[in-house]
Amino acid sequence: MVSTSLGVLQSDLIKFKPLLPTWKVLSIYQFDMAVYTKIFVKFPKKFWPEGKGREFFLYVSSRRGYYGVWQEFEAQYPDANVLLVTVTDKESRRIEQQSDNQTKAEIMEVLRSMFPGEDVPDATDILVPRWWSDRFYKGTFSNWPIGVNRYEYDQLRAPVGRVYFTGEHTSEHYNGYVHGAYLSGIDSADILINCAQKSMCKYHVQGKYD
Question: What does the record give as its pathway (predicted)?
Fold first, then answer.
């Protein structure tokens, strides 16, 4: 049972012997591995707006995806003085390759431009996840691109001989989510049980134009 992420399957971390058949390799590369990064920044005091309807705020830049979506947590964690900023795709990859101090400096510049009339203190701590750089993940979650249909999906989750595949990228309804990984694990276990106990081992792949 192979439960690695789609990003790992698309990398050279795992060597299959014999090699996976062409149809399986093509199905793996039909899907995308997205990068979605939540950066947590802690401050000695609050300087951002609070109250109902102010949990989220946005930064608009000519540079697409540049520290655009912000969230505060005072309702959930009073006096935590923590902000969350979300970046994705190319910005995520760029940020992962630089130091935390560089990222912190960029964030401080953005926040001071967002709140020019406030005394914005330097951040005291920062947490930058690096899902894309981690060779055991190579991304955050799988994405079903436009133009890819059920046929490619069935091939992605189909076994190769006695090698079975599972993970959120094989979840029919919840790919990209944690519960998709959980549910796909249950589905894969059921397939193996039926194969072992009932000799029902054949996996049906629906025709591409059915």
Answer: Amine and polyamine degradation; spermine degradation
